[in-house]
Amino acid sequence: MPMRLLLFCFVLLVAVSGCNSISTAKEKQQDEGIKVLIVEFGSRTPIPDMKVTVRDMETNEDVTTATGDIEGEAIVTDLQEGHQYLFVPSSIYTDDSEQEKSVGKVVTIQEDMGYVVLETYFEREEQQLDVPIIMQNPELPHGCEITALTAALNYYGLNLSKTDMAKNYLPKQEIVDKGNKRIGPDPAKAYAGDPFNKLTGTYVFAPVIEKVAKKIAKDKNVSLKVENVSGQSAEEIISLVQEGVPVVVWVTLDLSKPTFKEGWWIKGTNRKLDMYRNLHAVVLTGHMDDKVIVMDPLHGYVSHDETSFFKSYKKLGSQAVAIWK
């Protein structure tokens, strides 16, 4: 059997409206199908013996698969115009468990769309850390931070549960109405609301995730170094990953400008906090040329343009937590 191809493809990330939802648009089926060309990154050489799995981003269900020909071309059908889909390439020699770890490309289907080009890398182990995929939904619609941390810790073999982490380790405080004010915690000290609740969940910042990780390491009696590396440069963060260190990083969902809505007053202070509408947390697992690879608790493995990723990182206050052994 040929050496299994462990793949990376680069993602054109499209905007989403919230941490656990993707907007839908008008539905019109692409009856003639869409051509998918699978090529080697850099050289753009077509790669034969490839399979494409297409997943509906709204339902998170696989909707179709197609196998490429000797020219690296496959045709996928039964896709709806206006819908977003995750295109995931894999070798026909790759089993399903490895296929799930491939980096996908998020595509919005448009009228008269021609080719979708998937650029791939070989030898996955040499390109990024094998952080396990852990999806926050459906249990934790607003639990991206604790889910990302769970994945980063499980990279070291801890076999933790995201729900146990959220219930028993993540410090939480409610947001309550007092008079004409909403009062809640400082996100740098506790999670505001309930990550299990789509209506009342919000977010938490790096100092809390650092403390949770240290407590886990102590309780499980494992030797892990945990450090809040917030404020470090893109080069420093990338250097950590290249040394084999997974890093939980705060960015926005679409890597665009942060948006806000009415927030709350920090309990015991006279400081009011505006609430992020599009805050997200991912695990940075790899870097290739001008791309970064992340384990995203909403989408699995995806890649981003390095400049856009770290621009978003800075706009979210340059927050990051590194964990190494």
UniProtKB/TrEMBL annotation:
Signal sequence extent: 1-25
Entry keyword set: Signal
Superkingdom as given in the UniProt entry: Bacteria
Alphabetized Pfam families for the sequence: Peptidase_C39_2
Protein name as catalogued: Peptidase C39-like domain-containing protein
Start and end residues of each Peptidase C39-like domain: 129-297
InterPro entries (alphabetical): Peptidase_C39-like
